Amino acid sequence: MTTPQDELLPGTRRALLHRIAVAQAEGRAPSLVATVVRGGEAVWTGARTSVEGHAPDEHVQYRIGSITKTFTAVLVLRLRDEGALDLGDPLEKHLPGTGAGEATIAELLAHSGGLAAETPGPWWERTPGSLRPGLADVLGERPLVHPAGRRFHYSNPGYALLGALVEKLRGAPWEEVLRREVLEPLGLRRTGVHPEAPHAGGWAVHPWADVMLPEPLEDLGRMAPAGQLWSTTGDLARFAVFLINGDDRVVSAESLREMRTPAAPAGAADVASGYAYCLGLEIRHQDGRTLVGHTGSLPGFLACLAISVADDVAAVVLANCTSGPSPFMVAADLVRIVAEAEPRIPAPWQPLREVDPAVMELVGQWYWGTYAFALRQLADGIVSLEPLSGNGRGSRFRPNGDGTWTGLEGYYAGELLKPVRRPDGSVSHLDLGSFVFTRQPYDRTAPVPGGVDPEGWRGIG
Q1: In terms of DSSP H, where are the helices of 314-458?
Q2: Digit-coded pLDDT (tens) for 263-304
Q3: What is the pLDDT of residue 121?
Q4: How many contiguous H segments (helices) and E segments (strands) does the chain have?
């Protein structure tokens, strides 16, 4: 991936540099490096450091903590896409005897399996993985603290189980599978389970004095699938492009859309803050923008990858301190700066290459009761049904190849849209999950549920 710095305007580049400079100075981070991605390429990299003349670049490794979970989730989705498992399968079906087997694979991916947040025993992030040689040591005597599927409860041991699941089904260590199936195909040559020079050291900065303490760099053992990886902003920029567009050598764009869809029951606080968890990815709403990605932290390191799919802009922020700057807030601001200063230029409008007469017969205005809707034909056989007044539910629908469509969003996601024809072949109405859409409000010639008053429309008097 190239980094054509001149693709962004000078004012945009200065605003980006100013934002990370403020974050490094006010957050008192020994170093902070960031990269911005737009249109499938890294377009800006900047860094600030406390060591004069030694600023890191996009090739310097940092620990990325829980961003590792997204990589583990990709491996699980690969297994699903191959038919080796179903996300609805209980863990017990593939990895028996854990004591947490009632949780489904999807629930583990979404942190809704009811597992404890942390491992028993000493703080796993600052102690050797050899203290937890087996899954029983990761889970303890009471692995479940909530009923499976009932609520979102972030669980690091849950991702240790998913890593063990990958190992069981692949017959190889998690890190070996990750390198072979994800890192190498995507060209992430500076991402791995162990640091390779050049890499940053992890530091704790005293909360009340400008002094530092080195943090231990432990191998996490069984907990590696939850937070072991080291990476760079350059590699994570490539990973961001993959998370937006997909790569059929790894995971398809369709499966990645599934990964980006909220999958866990959200608590009241999460709803209020605009946070939701998907399948190995987080969604946050910031400044009117939807950002998908993941944050990460381990003693000595902070990390964030944030993507605005709508703007086709992503940002990666890495720092080598235990606390200080907020990597998500910095990444969100970097995305906002680029998206607002240089908004995405849409592709030119082009007419469709092919016209389907059966679809053209359906486009135009429809009514659900007295609510007006418009059905439009889009590219790739997709149609959209949108309210004309701003009130009502809308969705895009993908073709099923048999003259029907399946909803993609919101209330109508997964619901079937089908035209219903009269004996003479003309279209009577649209059926959408039992809702009848007619060409006229409460059309008496269509089978409107409950019927239509035979006297028809009238005034007062």
Answers
A1: 327-341, 357-360
A2: 998 888 888 889 999 999 999 999 999 999 999 999 999 999
A3: 86
A4: 14, 19
3-state secondary structure (DSSP) of residue 47: strand
From 289, 335, 298, 291, select the one nearest 69 (Cα to Cα). 298
Find, among 159, 400, 394, 384, the residue nearest to 280 by Cα: 159
Token pair of 199 as six digits: 């890499």
Cβ pair 308, 287 in contact under 8 A:
no
Above 50 in pLDDT, residue 1? no
383: β partners: 377, 397
What's the CA angle centered on 312, arms 258 and 355, to 5 degrees? 75
Mean pLDDT of the chain: 94
Task: Please give the pLDDT value at position 406.
Answer: 97
Q: Say what percent of the chain tops pLDDT 70.
A: 98
Dist. CA 62–CA 245, nearest whole Å: 25
- pLDDT score of 6: 47
Burial class (CB in 10 A: 0-12, 13-18, 19+), 104: buried
Note the pLDDT of residue 448.
Answer: 92
Runs of H (alpha helix) within 140-287: 156-170, 174-178, 184-186, 224-227, 233-245, 253-259, 268-273
Residue 386 bridge partners (DSSP): 374
- C-alpha dist (Å) from residue 222 to 73, 129, 147, 167, 272: 16, 6, 24, 11, 34
Q: What is the pLDDT of residue 390?
A: 75
Q: Two tokens at 17? A: 């540099």
pTM of the model: 0.91
C-alpha 109/C-alpha 102 separation (Å) is 14
Query: CA nearest 282: which of 270, 294, 297?
Result: 294
Question: Residue 187: pLDDT above 70?
Answer: yes
* Alpha carbons 109 and 53: distance in angstroms, whole number: 42
**pLDDT at residue number 5:** 46
Q: How many CB atoms lie within 10 A of CB 134?
A: 10
Residue 300: both structure tokens together: 């000595």
